[in-house]
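2 proteins. here.
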Amino acid sequence: MEISKLGYFSLAGWQEKKKQEQKSKNKVFYLNSLVTDIYQHNLFTVPGQGVLNYLQKKRQLDRLMITRFSLGCTISGKQLTNLLFQQKNDNFSSTDLLATNLVWITSDNRTSDFFLENQLIVPLANEEGKVVAFASRKIEESEVNEGKYKYLPSHHHYHKSSLLYNYSAAKKSREEEIYLVEGFFDVISLTELGIENCAAILGTSLSEDQIKLLANLQKKIILFLDGDKAGKEAAISALIKLLLQEIDCEAIKGNYEEDPDEICRQHNKEYIQNFLKKRENPYLFILDYYFSKWEVAENPQRVSHFVREVAKIFQNFRVNIRDFLIEKISLLVKWNKEEIESYFIKRHFPLPNFRYLQIAYCQEIIQQKEIIIIRLCIQSRAHWVITAKKNYFFFHKSNRRDYRSIYNYYSLDACSNFFPNQLDNYNISLEKDQKILETSETIEKIFQEIDHVKKFLLIYEQKYYSRT
């Protein structure tokens, strides 16, 4: 039976695809490195003087910091088009340049750069420190209601929500914690003061991919977002997301209104170091925020609303966290813990969903039966032949993955009578089960048992929906 009929891939084809993907990625890295040099060179030319003055005078950055973060600027809306797109290059093609979105072809077939002239340019690097995209910032105020920042549109090797600015530097830091801020200049200003263990969200919303990056650091995350209303709400949202993933985190106390960049430029290194020591437990930070936002102290009638909403926020947290919160809320609103607990009990102990439990139980049975089938296929090629003929689709993802490995091995090596390696999930001695696993009838019986469970589930679901 051909592998392709069951949807399994050709190893040679897969390797060739990966090779082409890596080749494409290397071209993107090369292109972006070249463009970074072009933009940085622009900054120290006469046309780039306006952006340089903005960095040195308004942002108070010296040349060392400008160079460290590879800051640059645009001096024309067609510079990259003229330099890279319209001239032949052995290292990349015009198609490669278009794929990065640095150069665009308009509807009337004109070519131009994505970024306009006289813009500050900030390179964006991935977790390995390779530049994958760019962002721009206006240096002049505009009457048109447009944002100050502009990011390259996503492409195959870049999604803004999948990276953190300065992540690779923070990852290399020996510090056991990392400061999480909103923007580029927050990171640059902290770094200028010697605080290099920092990274930026590039916005106010923390994405799932960014949370994974932070989890991989295995460091404490210290939130230091802007002090305005949007920044505080963003801090609350980020803390909840981090706590749900059980990532160790704290927040800088929220008695400031500026953004980190402004605070750093207004004070010296010693002041900032002391400022950053003023932190708060994330749960207490959240409680204090909502207690203040809803003005509970001035309006005792809002206590019930406060407790109810907090219970909603923490409804998916562990019971020990619930007990901690009940105690803290009790001290905050001066209610008995028993009164507060009733709000949480409603959230944490709903009526059992018997249909869900029945389905989960049947799925667990099927999972265990499939594990036995995988064990049999590992033990003997004969068992695999029976399984292959049935075209059985494994219910559980990890079982599908492991069966694919077994299938590919036996298909490519017709002389092997057993699978040479014990897979991680099945590295269990088969000797004690030898009597059960000796005959080919055993595997047929297991498939019959799986069919019985599936038929039961089908009938159960039909009866359930006929009642509803």
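next one coming up
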Amino acid sequence: MREKRPYQHSTTMLQKRFVKEYLERGKVGEAAKAAGLTETYGSKLLKAPKIQKALTNAMEKAGITDAAIAKKVKEGLDATTPPVDGGERGGGRPEWPDFGVRREYLDFAAKVRGDYAPELHEERQTRLEITVDLNSLRGMAESGVLDAAEIIEVENIEARAASPATGPHQSPVAGKTQLLEAEVQEKT
């Protein structure tokens, strides 16, 4: 025996109403609310193949075919400003390309074709150098801001920086910075 689905008919009616409202309003949120649906459900519904097919059929019935759209886009890509008659004084302007309208249509055509690359989310790394003397670090350890192990590590770096290996041409601070960078690179 076949299982009954009590809301199947009403769901189909809601979908038809959503399609009708979407074609009239052009906005998913407004169409969904007018059809008695949530905006979220309307967005999901719009992506459904069944709804896409219904929208395509309705547009074709209204004469909005792929060929008609292509013709309008072509007209937009060839848009010109009308000539301006200068009147008695002369100095009118001839017909010339309307680059603003052409750009909008070109942008639209590129979006429809999927010519734009997806957006890239660029990550940037920032390097921050902070110079703190050893006494300040010990104070931070006593207050609990730094772990004692971190202080020992810094003391070791400072001890290496103060060693004769830094050479007479390098300052102890430069040695600390270089050793600190080496320690960071070793850890990563």
